[in-house]
Amino acid sequence: MSQTFPRIGRRRAVQGGTAALVVLGLLLWWLRPWAEEPPSGTIDFSTGTRAGVYHEYGELLRTAIDKDMPDLRVRLLTSAGSQENVAEVASGDADFAIAAADAVATYMHDNRPGAGRLRGVARLYDDYVQLVVPPDSDIRSVADLRGKRVAIGLPDSGVRLIANAVLKAAGIDPENDIEPASDGIDTGPKRLGHGLDAFFWSGGLPTDGLSRLAKKSASAFRFVPIDATLVAALHDQGGATRYYRATKMPESAYPSVQHGRPVPTLAVSNLLITRSDVDPRLAEWLTRTVLDSRDRIGATVHSAQLVDVRTAIYTDPLQLHVGAQRYYQSVKP
Question: Which of 127, 143, 249, 273 yields a CA-CA distance of 20 to 30 A from 30?
Answer without folding.
Answer: 273
